[in-house]
Amino acid sequence: MINFPNSPTQGQTFSPPGGYQYIYLDGVWRVVEASQNLTALPRSRLVNGAFQHSQENGNSASGVSGYYGADQFYTSVNGTAVLTTQRVQVVTPNGSVNRYRVLVATADAAMAAGDVAVIQTSIEGMRVADFRWGTAQAKQAILRFGWKSPAGTYSICINNGAANRSYPVNFTISAGQAYVDTEQVIVIPGDVAGTWATDNARGMIIYFTLANGTTYQGAANTWGAGNLTGTAATSNGVATVAATYELFDVGLYLDPTNTGTPPRFEMPDELNELQACQRYWRRNDDVRAAAWAAGTQARVIGPLIPYMRVAPAAALLGIPYTHVWNIVNQGTGSLASALCSVTNIDVTVNLQAAVGAQQEASLTSGAISLSARM
Questions:
Q1: Which positions ≥6 away from 186 have C-beta within 8 Å?
Q2: I need a surface site. Which of 91, 171, 265, 349 has the fewest CB within 10 A?
Q3: E strand residue ranges, 196-312
């Protein structure tokens, strides 16, 4: 006779001594088939949740709103606050080596209605299509993340890509937890309403909210219409200069059996994660092209592997160098045209005017960036 646990919950597992492993699904204990691998971890739907990659800005700091401290994550501020953002190398409790840090450089002690300070990331619709949000079959999800900050009440908010459906949730850092690494686990019921993209458009936005004015406040733990970032209970986390926030080891998981428990954190494979990041932003390093006396333009053509989300916008990261008979001059380069697709780069750059009878002009390493960000 097997004494199963009383009052089991959906997805609960049970392993009696010397017997099969069982899982409780839809009101019945079921035997787990030998072929089922319950140790396989559900994958996080976020890109770069361990902040392994920061292609654009490395570990450099900036106080500009919209600054990407790491791939797929940026800090957004509206109001008088100035927040300095950068990736830092501080080992996390899970063993990751990178964190996303925000420091209050200029305080906003009195938040106006439209003021807001958030860290945010967007998720492509096809990465969360099986959540089935916006339908009667919507499934539960779990957000887990590491957090270190002053004491206070902060918020996360899940929004759809159109920013007209929101689910704000508060979490509290006690006085004893101030500036101590904590793990936050947020259970998110599936949204049965609204429109949620399931293609290569932006399917989901996640806000980690330090402060928000009344314009962006709504009821906690409730799906509703509108573009929200938090609740009325959210502290003003940008009221004090030098207040510091660290986000790390972020994961978003489908929870189809409503366990309410996230899988253990596992740092993503670094190469796979880089390729995922390059779908949205990349720099073309060691790009070289030549232009001779007949012209002052250089054209760069080549494949993009992996493919990008949409046809990217191209930009010069620096001024091209012009080589004239082994003399290097810094030109006044500018972007002449960009005809890139999701699979190919095709960029033409204006170079310094011709000098002498023959000129070879080349783009230096890291001269072109391509962005398909959401």
A1: 142, 143, 144, 156, 169, 171
A2: 91
A3: 202-212, 224-225, 244-254, 281-284, 297-303
Task: Name the residue type at position 320.
Answer: P
Which burial class, exposed, middle or buried, applies to 6 when counting CB atoms under 10 A from its CB (0-12, 13-18, 19+)? exposed
CA distances from 344 to 4, 201, 314, 340 (A): 58, 20, 12, 6
Burial of 346 (0-12, 13-18, 19+ CB in 10 A): middle
Judge whether residue 10 has pLDDT over 90: no
Kind and range of the H or E run holding 152: strand 152-160
Residue 118 phi/psi, 5-degree rounding, is: -140, 155
Continuous segment of H or E residues that includes residue 75: strand 73-78
Block residue for tokens 């003399």? 327
In sequence order, what are the residues at sequence separation of 6 or more whose Cβ sits closer than 8 angstroms to the Cβ of residue 145? Answer: 49, 156, 183, 184, 208, 247, 248, 249, 250, 251
Residue 207: partners with Cβ closer than 8 Å, 6 or more residues away = 118, 119, 120, 155, 156, 157, 159, 229, 230
CA distance 166 to 109: 26
Q: What are the tens digits of pLDDT across the range 223-247?
A: 999 999 999 999 999 999 999 999 9
* CATH, domain range 67-278: 2.60.120.260
Write down the pTM of the prediction: 0.86
Nearest to 149 by CA among 184, 192, 116: 184
pLDDT for the residue 44: 96
Q: Which two tokens stand for residue 68?
A: 């990407």
| DSSP conformation class of 240 | S
